[in-house]
Amino acid sequence: MRPLLVLVIAFxxxxxxxxxxxxxxxxxxxxxxxxxxxFDARIMDHWGGGGGATWTISNDSVxxxxxxxxxxxxRKQIAGxxxxxxGYPWDSDNAATLSGRGFPFGTWPIWWGNDFMGTxxxxxxxxxxxxxxxxxTAPVQLIKAGSPFTNATEDExxxxxxxxxxxxxxMISFVTWCHVKPAWPTKFDPxxxxxxxxxxNVFQYYRASSFAxxxxxxxxxxxxxxxxxxxxxxxxxxxxxxxxxxQCVDSVISNALPVMNKPPLVQKKSVTYGIIFGILGIPMxxxxxxxxxxxxxxxxxxxSGPIARVRESADRKARAKAEREAGLAYEAFP
Length: 334
Known about the structure:
Helix content: 25-40%
Number of helices: 5
Transmembrane segments: 271-299
Keywords: Membrane, Signal, Transmembrane, Transmembrane helix
Shape: elongated
Distance between the termini: 114 Å
Low-confidence stretches: 4-23, 330-334
Signal peptide: 1-20
């Protein structure tokens, strides 16, 4: 986490009401479902760490991306570059196309239209099953320019682009940590003449190019000619590159954007039985031991009187016999 964001979060924690704090009991999550056979799903977690093993979409799922792998990428691998197709920690052998790739963070890349870099297979018809919902965009603008970021300018506004839930979750985080005006997302259509951002406006991709940060102040002339691993790009305007506000937005995305969790832990039956025995069996054995001890105590108390009387009678008889034998022995002495 960058130092600036740490300071902003610390300031927010000291000055904001309790209602502004993240309630971990209501942590935002995205379900990635790939089968009709059961309700099993992997979870994309807001602020999650990612990682774990990948899993393959089974052939009996009737999913459009059968055979492809999901998950496995870690939070620290989330940042791409200014080049579309960047940010893949695996399955990135062909930098010229995104067609046929897996989904390291749990969802597929942005669709820019016209089969750009082989992405028509991720077009708007797939938005109905895209984890997190259809592609949307939202403006990210300070409530007041220059506060709390003194070098932020009036025209410094950014746009985020991604699935509906991710954009909504990020807006909540921006409002909390970066003093952003709340704004609901709107549907993104890359082919519409009225779309607020273009491919050339993106200056940072995240999460295997499934999420982007853009600015109308930026125009990347290499955007449509570069490949995924390209290092060619137009330079950022100084007010964007050195903006503390932009750094806050970038840091929040890097730390909070939903990524796919590790798969649930599957335990062996022997381990499960051992845990069940440990939880239930040992207390039951201890309880049984206490009950047996209590029963023995009760029985001992109940029969202690008669047993004592029998023993006392036997002792008296033994003493009387001993006394008689001693008397006879004395009389028989010459």
